[in-house]
Specification:
45% strand; globular; Nucleoside Triphosphate Pyrophosphohydrolase; alpha+beta; four-stranded mixed β-sheet; four-stranded antiparallel β-sheet; 155 residues
Length: 155
């Protein structure tokens, strides 16, 4: 089993959320939250700020921890064909500067302010639903129910 620790930014403002369009090596697009892998010896708090800047071109400050999501992706559904566990730490962030742009030499083609009502119609990572659910409900435990994958919702 592979394991990945990642930090994700939930940036909501005035009925819209900032989403990043990830383009795979095969050319498939999926909307996701800005964020990514926590590097060795890096604090997830620092990682979300770094990843947000790398992927969007904007600087952000963390307003609060929203929660943690842990999901296991069966080998049959994982990209590498090996069972994979993703542990995601979700933070609410606020933009403090910069301009939206694609990720230089990266997989994020664009970052777009998206009306919350439009999210359900997008091909997206389940991370989007988890992050928005955490932001909306602010559970005391920092945990929400698993998001079923299928249709427009991807791993």
């Amino acid at each position: 089993m592979s394991l990945r620790l990642a930090a994700y930014a939930v940036c909501v403002d005035g009925g819209r959320v900032l989403l990043a369009r990830h383009v795979s090596a095969e050319g498939e697009s999926t909307w996701t939250l800005p964020g990514g892998r926590v590097e060795h010896a890096e604090d997830p708090f620092d990682a979300v700020v770094r990843e947000f800047a790398e992927e969007t071109g904007c600087e952000a400050v963390v307003e609060r921890l929203l929660g943690v999501d842990s999901r296991v992706i069966p080998a049959a559904e994982a990209r590498a064909g090996v069972e994979h566990q993703n542990i995601g730490v979700f933070y609410r962030v606020r933009i403090t500067g910069g301009r939206l742009r694609p990720e230089p030499q990266g997989e994020i083609a664009e970052s777009v302010w998206t009306p919350l009502l439009d999210v359900a119609g997008l091909r997206r990572s389940s991370l989007v639903d988890v992050g928005l659910d955490l932001a909306r409900t602010a559970p005391a435990t920092g945990h929400v129910a698993a998001v079923p994958v299928g249709g427009l919702i991807q791993h």
